Each structure stands twice: as C-alpha cells, then as structure tokens.
Amino acid sequence: GAVVSQHPSRVICKSGTSVKIECRSLDFQATTMFWYRQFPKQSLMLMATSNEGSKATYEQGVEKDKFLINHASLTLSTLTVTSAHPEDSSFYICSAPFGRTTDTQYFGPGTRLTVL
Amino acid sequence: AQTVTQSQPEMSVQEAETVTLSCTYDTSESDYYLFWYKQPPSRQMILVIRQEAYKQQNATENRFSVNFQKAAKSFSLKISDSQLGDAAMYFCAYRSDQYSGGGADGLTFGKGTHLIIQP
Fold first, then answer.
1. Which residues, including other chains, have CB under 8 Å from residue B62's CB and lie 6 or more apart?
2. What's the pLDDT at A108?
3. How far away is chain A from the Cα of B77, in angstroms, using its nearest Cα?
4. Residue of B6, B30, B8 lying closest to B96 (CA atoms)
C-alpha cells in the first residue's frame, strides 16, 4: 500500500507555456497532498498543501498565480506551472499522508521540469 | 518556524561497518514527528524510519535505528552493517502534530547528508 505516482516523469517546454503535473495516490485516498520543489544538490522545499474540495495553502514566497494547484478528487492533485520561465526548471515532488494517524508521507517519483 | 539541521554534508563508511548521521532541530512545539528519508540516485524519496516525539523509546527498523534526544532536540540515524545499497542522500525531516487527525502539515527537511559506502 501507499503508492504515489506522478506524471509526467520528465517534461521540457518552451518559455511562456504552461505545464501540468499530476500526482495520484494509487491505493489509498488522500484529502491532503503536498507539493515540494528540489533544486539540484539541494533539499526539498515545501511549496504548498493541496486540499481536496478547497483552496490550496501556499508557503511564504510561493507565487499562487504561477503555481496553480487543483485537488479534484481524493486520489488526484495537479500542479500547473503557468507561463513557465527557465528559473522554474526544477524537480517537483508530491507526497500524500497515509497510515493510521496519517502522519507519514509517501512520495511520488518526481517530475523533472526543464524550461527552455 | 521549525528548522532542521544536518551538519554533515557527506559521510563515508566501509561496507559492513556502522555509521551515524546527525540531525538537530529547533521547535517550540511539544508534539511532532521526525523522519529519516533516503533519496537514491533515482530521486525517489523512501521512508527509512519515523519517530513520534511523545515516545521515549527509540525507533528501530532492521539495520536502522535512531537516537532521539528530545531535550537536546537531536535525532541521529545509525545504520548498522552498511550495505552498498545504502548509498544515497539521507534527509532528516520534521512534521508538526499541531492539528488533530494528522496529515495537515508538510515536512521541513534538513539539507541532507550524502552517504558513501566504500566496498
């Protein structure tokens, strides 16, 4: 149990276009999911909390209009990077809590975004 | 805000030996969870071990164990009988337990320790 998938695994896009990344919990339901960003050789930084049926909660410094999050169902959250620029190039990872007390997060395999 | 500090950017250990990775954190909360995650070159984050702050007993998972010192805000990971497959980045992470029902808070990560296993 506790498998989280992400799609796509890699994406290359032109500057100014939008890119959508999907995060799915495959064998459990998640009312909350989390999106992280990881630059090369750095740690994971929490970007936002995705809440099923309500607005996402963004961390300080994260642009809400650039990183649109939609938690459409109990198994799917999407992150859309709008008007992408080269500085948005990064590794994006989602996670979902699972377990008796839902205290442990399980991570997707990540999506590498390259903006040309 | 909570902070997590991993002071060892890189550690090296001989295969079959024991290595300890250090982690300290800063928080004003009394209830929280601590985790060690492993990130191999594939970049998939893999849970290694978790610890509830209210438990005094140190968590263990096979060859992995922690030394949790709540008063000192220290949470080190010990890997016994190191294996080549243990080579990876190891991240210490903190999660608040301020909300009932759990799952409401994301993780705060340390900068990571790159563990090298020498054959």
1. none
2. 96
3. 17
4. B30
